[in-house]
Structures are given as C-alpha cells and as structure tokens.
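Possible regression after last week's pipeline update?

I re-ran a chain I had predicted before the update to compare outputs. Posting the input and the new output here so someone can diff against the archived version. Not blocking, just want to make sure nothing changed silently.
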Amino acid sequence: MRKRIRGLAWSAAVAGAVVAVAASGVVSVGLAWTQVPAQLQPPAGEQLMLQVHAKGEQVYTCKGEGATFTWTLKGPEAQLFDQDGKEFGKHFAGPSWEAKDGSRVTGKAVANAASPDAKAIPWLLVNIVSHEGSGVLSRATTIQRINTKGGKAPAAGCDAGRAGQEVRVGYSADYLFYAPK
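New output (post-update):
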C-alpha cells in the first residue's frame, strides 16, 4: 500500500513510522519535521489517525467595553483538505470540524503555544467534547493545530467607530486528529 503525503510517496511502513514518531512529539509535515511543544502532546494511549490542512479565514468582531475596544475571535471559516489536496470538509465556529461524510466534532482548547511564526495564531491542543454523525471523525478524541500561518487579529483599527464590524484574516494550519489506540 502506498500513500501520498504532501507530494511524497510513502510506503505503509514509513507511514507507520511517522505515526510512531508523531506520538513522540515530532510530526512529519511535507519535507520538514515539526517539533510540537510538550504541552500540546495528546494523552498517552492515543495515536495519530488523520491529518488535514486548513485554508481559510479567522473572523474577528470589534467589541468594546467602556473605552476599551479589541478584535475578538468570532470563529474560523476554513476548508479542510486531505493529504492529496482533495476537499475533506470544513472548519467553523464552535470550534467544529466536519468531514464530507457528515461526521462532526466540536472541541475545547485545553493548551496553546506560540507559533514559531510570530505573525501566526498559536498552536493548540483541543479536546473533543462532542461528536455528531458516523464517519471518519467518529473515533477522534484530541486535535492538534500546528504549522499555523497568518490568522492573527489586527493590532489596531478597532475603536468606537468600528464597534460591531468584522474583519477576516487569512490563515492556514494543519490539524492532526488523534484517537485511542
């Protein structure tokens, strides 16, 4: 059996090695190896079951309290793609991830770490708190968001004159789904 991972042909044995290495905190992404911080590791007894790439926008709303106004995350709106670049599903406010087969998970962030890219949103560890439907996401229990690019709220521009307005900031990330062994 051969799998295509980001343009590379990998044998099942190599793919299995990637899963074993991922469990140790080093994840294969394209041609580079990504070191995932300790606080973002999935629980012991879980293994990598799926990796998807997200491309879309982080949506922020200008909100104020008194004289202080800040861009507040409303939620993501992104398309998800499998390792062959084919459409897998979508990611949206909740935060939720939905596969084309109708399976859906909603999560709650439990840990974060700054992205190595200072212009990018943080990396996350997300515990799945609810499942809907039956399909590829049905077994997932934990998600990592890594390799983020962009998506940060604007540093300025939110004031009384823009209260209630939205801004959309392009981003991309890799989401790794884990399930019990």
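Follow-up from reviewer: compared with the archived run. The chain has one helix and twelve strands. Marking as no regression found.
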